[in-house]
Amino acid sequence: MPKLSEEKKAVLGSMTREALYEAAVGILQEEGWQGLTIERLAGAAGVAKGTVYNYFRDKKEIVYFVAERSLEEVKEKVLATDISAGDPVRLLDELLETLLRHVFEKRRTLSAMVRMIVEDAEMRTMPCDFKNHTAREIREKMVELFRRGAAEGVFPPMDPVLMDAVLHSTLHGVIHEFIAHEEQVRDVDEVIAAVKNLILYGFCGKEPKNP
Amino acid sequence: MPKLSEEKKAVLGSMTREALYEAAVGILQEEGWQGLTIERLAGAAGVAKGTVYNYFRDKKEIVYFVAERSLEEVKEKVLATDISAGDPVRLLDELLETLLRHVFEKRRTLSAMVRMIVEDAEMRTMPCDFKNHTAREIREKMVELFRRGAAEGVFPPMDPVLMDAVLHSTLHGVIHEFIAHEEQVRDVDEVIAAVKNLILYGFCGKEPKNP
Amino acid sequence: MPKLSEEKKAVLGSMTREALYEAAVGILQEEGWQGLTIERLAGAAGVAKGTVYNYFRDKKEIVYFVAERSLEEVKEKVLATDISAGDPVRLLDELLETLLRHVFEKRRTLSAMVRMIVEDAEMRTMPCDFKNHTAREIREKMVELFRRGAAEGVFPPMDPVLMDAVLHSTLHGVIHEFIAHEEQVRDVDEVIAAVKNLILYGFCGKEPKNP
Amino acid sequence: MPKLSEEKKAVLGSMTREALYEAAVGILQEEGWQGLTIERLAGAAGVAKGTVYNYFRDKKEIVYFVAERSLEEVKEKVLATDISAGDPVRLLDELLETLLRHVFEKRRTLSAMVRMIVEDAEMRTMPCDFKNHTAREIREKMVELFRRGAAEGVFPPMDPVLMDAVLHSTLHGVIHEFIAHEEQVRDVDEVIAAVKNLILYGFCGKEPKNP
DNA sequence: GATGAATGAGGTTTCATTCAT
DNA sequence: GATGAATGAAACCTCATTCAT
């Protein structure tokens, strides 16, 4: 019964991968990038050090995988949103709500991902094999929304890709702000609402926006 | 003329410090944090490894020093701005112009600083002796501006500290965006104008803003 | 036969540890503490530098391990002695014979251990995890002997712990005397006999003790 | 007036030497050998680092000088003792009293000296230019005493040099015992009395010796 | 003599990765 | 596939000593 055996192997294999994922997330959330050594990862996942390399080419790939996975949940939500109809402003508001909440929850994992990407960028070794498909899909959806909003005159007549980049930047920066002032963030909802407001209506927008 | 001699010494001493600063900036701009090892720094500055430690207690202090220095120039400009009078929107616009341009120029140095701070935050060893006075002064000026603008009803009635935090986040995120898409940034002015627009009037603001 | 394989592994593992032990002893005997650098140790043991840290947390642990091991043999002998019966003086004589001979043989290794301990004491960081159980067991045996001897009126009515401390001091000092005048020690037996005599009967004791 | 100038220089020079001595003693007593860096020494003495090398060839010489000086006071006392007459036992008792008290007081300084000597011995680079005259004079006096005592039949008929070596060893070991159990030494007098007793009458001597 | 900036060899430790079993 | 001992390149930091002024 080779088939069963293969299935078994596949299941077992993916189980190990899963265990590594869980362990990596746990370590990242607790101690950030610094704490994520292969030894600890293997230990936390209950496998040997060498085994890690059966599932990931190197440490980078682990972080990338974790990052991808961490974004998956939020991707589902974003992609499930029907963008083609309804008020673009309301849609953007909803998406921001989702994204910001997610960014807050996964701040440390995302921080590790960011660090990795920055490192690659600085070394000019941006890996061609890491396209970060998940993030890309999310961002494309946002671009689409911006494009429609601009066409309808609701959003400013601006390159939607650029708009997305700026939005992305803010989310990106918010990650670190969340980490740096972690203990001061008492009421996340309030903070998120404020951030949303500033993104949507700008620093000079007059809308009160606290219904 | 011992005085002259002492002056000379002082000059020489500060020259080494200066050389180290220049070398550090150079390395950071070229290769980012990764490339900044004590050995290379010393080599680039034309001194011995041990000499570095005559000027800085450890590696952190170097990055902090460079960061502080890098912000000094922009700080001058920001502090020179008279905030108590004039249209808050115009003032914010000008300040953003200054800040964004600076952030673009010093992106890699600032990235290293950010990384250091994030690392500290993740280790929960936020150093008490590094207050980043320069950044603080800039941010306090912004807070002041937000406070006045809010009081005059030009800015939204929001906690000015929070506003500053969000603005900071965006600038922060823009650093990495600049690094990541470095080669795609053809027209900096255009990008900066767009970013400014989005910050000032938000993603849903109607102001066309392209005179 | 996985068991054999595991045994093999265990043997191999302990072989490396053993090699490190042997190498450390060799270096200490040849050059003392000064010569014991991680690099040389690794080289002498035929392993890479990093391997050392797979077996010992840090340099201290190596010396402690070596010290403990060096005392083990003598500990066996001492603990094998039945202290509860027989002439305390004869027993002390025998134990001193054993200890002094051992101290002479391992003088350099013990000197390194002493240095480590002194350093710790001076730094006031006496490590709680290094109890030097072996030495402790030996010393407790001596204390016991002193206690019985004192009770029987053979030894002076003195705090046995204090007696042990003084004995220990002398042995301790003898280590260095052995090292310092190494080349002058022609007849070890003679020297040991003299030391024993002075310890047993004091500088003013009248017993001739040279059969 | 070149003469006055020279005298002045000499005085000033010896003052610096003195300051260095005081500083070295202070540091050694406080922190032991570990704390004695040239930089701290110079700082504590109120001179520049380079100046130290105008007075001492290298670090070793400093410790040797300090050691010599530390023994001077006790040497005076010992040499002032008239050994040619009187009960050798009483004389030895008195000398031991002096030596032990001194060893307790200067334990850390002497420990540094010991370490230095051991290091030299281990490296087999026993410096020919450091004879430790002071210690030698003390030891020669002891040897003399032992010789007379042996001749008179009060001390055992043993090589007086060997006797001195053993006595030295004990004193030597006591240094470290004093450091290691520093905080437990409540009543120095008591401890010293006990040590003296054991040295004089041995571990098997019957004399009670607590008048 | 005094100064103190510069030196650079030397030391310890970490950790991603490999590979024989 | 799993294991984990071995690897060794790097990194940081210390400090006795030199030497031009």
Descriptive overview:
Four copies of one chain form a homotetramer. Chain A has 211 residues and is mainly α. Chain A has two domains: 1-56, Homeodomain-like (Arc Repressor Mutant, subunit A), CATH 1.10.10; 65-204, Tetracycline Repressor, domain 2, CATH 1.10.357. Chain A is 76% helix and 0% strand. Chain A has nine helices and no strands. Chain A has helices spanning 2-35, 38-45, 49-55, 59-80, 88-105, 107-123, 133-151, 160-180, 188-201. The longest helix of chain A is centred in the first third of the chain and has 34 residues, at 2-35. Chain A is globular. Chain A starts with a helix and ends in a 10-residue tail after the last helix. The model of chain A has no long low-confidence stretch (mean pLDDT 87). Chains A and B meet through α1, α5, α6, α8 and α9 of A and α5, α6, α8 and α9 of B. Chain B binds a DNA duplex (21 and 21 nucleotides) through residues 5, 8-9, 12-13, 16, 37-39, 47-51, 53-54, 58-59.
Describe the protein's topology.
4 copies of one chain form a homotetramer.
Chain A (H helix, E strand, L loop, with lengths): L1 H34 L2 H8 L3 H7 L3 H22 L7 H18 L1 H17 L9 H19 L8 H21 L7 H14 L10
The structure holds a DNA duplex (21 and 21 nucleotides).
